[in-house]
Amino acid sequence: DDYKAWYHSGRLSTTGVYDRYGKKEGEWIHYHENEIKAELITYASDKKNGKYATYYENGAKKEIGTYRYGKKENQWTVYYENGQIANVYRYFSDQKQGEFVEYFDNGQLQRKGSITAESFVGPYEEYYQTGELKAKGNYDSSNQKQGIWEEYYESGKSKSKGEYKENQKTGKWLEWDSQGKKTVTKY
What we know:
Elements: E1 2-6, E2 12-18, E3 24-31, E4 37-44, E5 47-55, E6 61-68, E7 71-79, E8 85-92, E9 95-103, E10 109-116, E11 119-120, E12 122-127, E13 133-139, E14 145-152, E15 158-165, E16 168-176, E17 182-186
Antiparallel strand pairs: 1-2, 2-3, 3-4, 4-5, 5-6, 6-7, 7-8, 8-9, 9-10, 10-11, 10-12, 12-13, 13-14, 14-15, 15-16, 16-17
C-alpha cells in the first residue's frame, strides 16, 4: 500500500510503500518542510537494504551510502553543505574497515589512513587546512602509535621526530622550536 504523510502546513513529509504484511518496502522518501528531499531510504522487508542518501535543506547531498540487511556496507561519503566531500569511509557489516580520507570544508585533505573495527591501523597522515603535512606515522593493530612518528609546523618545518612503542614515546626524540632550534630528549 502506498503511504504518504504531511506536515501540519499541508506540505508532503514522507512517501513510501508497505508490502501486504505491513512492512516497509522499496524507496521511502522524507522531505524537508520546504519540500526538498531530506532522506531516501531503500527497504526490504522493513530493513534498510540498498541505496541510502540524506540531503541538506538546500538540496545538496549530505551523506550517500548503502545498507545491506540493516547494516552499513561498502563506501559511504559525507559532504559539507558547500558540496565539498567531508569524508569517505568503507564499511563492512556496520563497522568502518579499510582506507579512509577526511577533508576540510575547503577541499584540502585533513587526514588519511586505514581503520579496522573503529581503530586506526597502519600508515597515518594528518594535514593542516593549508595542505601542509602536520603529522605522519603508524598505528599498530591495537590502535596505538607505533614506530617512527614525525610532526611538522604549518610552515612545513620539522617539529618533532621519534619513536613510539605502545603509544608511548621511547628512545631519543628530536624536537625543534618554531625558530628551528633543535633539542634532543631521551624517553
